[in-house]
Structures are given as structure tokens and as C-alpha cells.
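pls design
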């Protein structure tokens, strides 16, 4: 039977501390937040940093008919920004894929910042 080493004991303690931190951050209050964000987002139409951004319920004219966006379409200067709603209610796009945001409006604004004045090129799937 092997005895526990100091290295293994410290590793277990560090792992337990990490787990406690994660649980503290995602406890009951944290778990309820994504559900609140899962309601249908409001439509928007605004000019942000000189670019016209719009979002609202999809009417079948979008690339996937609203499949990934949960029936929601976002455009930047009239060109569709491919968006997808995650299971936790957050949103991502082809431009802002690794940093989910709470609303499509925030997603459109993030895309405009990321584009830095460049035109949005339609996503070509096929």
C-alpha cells in the first residue's frame, strides 16, 4: 500500500479549492441567470459606430431560416450576421465565436467592433 505524498496532498487540496470556487460562482443564483436570458430577445435597429445594426425575429428569409439563431436574424449594414444561440441562452456569431454574450444586440455591437470598418462578407456554406 502506498503512502500519500506531499505533492499528491497539495494537488488534491488545490483541486478541491478550485471546485469550491467554481461552485461558489455558479451556485443557485448563477444557475438561474442563463434561464432568464433564454427568453426571446427584443428587436433592435440602431446605428452603432457608424454601422446600421438590426435584429429581430426571423421570417424565413435567413440563411438557415432561423435554425441556429432560434428564429432570430441579425444584420450589419443589411448583410446577415450568422448568429447562434447556445443552450445556456447566450449568443455567438461567426465573428465573435469564442466570447458568448447575453443578447443579439451585444453580439452585433461586438461584431462591428471586430470588423473595424471592414464590410461583413456573407457566410458561404455549401
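designed seq:
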Amino acid at each position: 500500500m502506498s503512502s500519500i505524498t506531499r505533492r499528491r496532498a497539495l494537488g488534491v487540496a488545490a483541486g478541491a479549492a478550485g471546485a469550491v470556487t467554481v461552485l461558489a460562482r455558479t451556485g443557485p443564483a448563477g444557475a438561474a441567470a442563463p434561464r432568464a436570458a433564454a427568453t426571446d430577445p427584443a428587436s433592435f435597429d440602431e446605428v452603432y459606430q457608424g454601422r446600421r445594426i438590426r435584429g429581430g425575429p426571423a421570417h424565413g428569409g435567413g440563411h438557415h431560416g432561423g435554425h441556429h439563431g432560434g428564429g432570430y436574424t441579425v444584420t450589419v449594414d443589411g448583410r446577415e450576421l450568422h448568429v447562434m444561440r447556445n443552450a445556456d441562452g447566450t449568443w455567438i456569431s461567426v465573428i465573435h465565436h469564442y466570447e458568448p454574450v447575453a443578447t443579439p444586440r451585444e453580439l452585433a455591437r461586438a461584431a462591428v467592433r471586430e470588423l473595424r470598418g471592414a464590410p461583413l462578407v456573407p457566410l458561404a456554406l455549401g
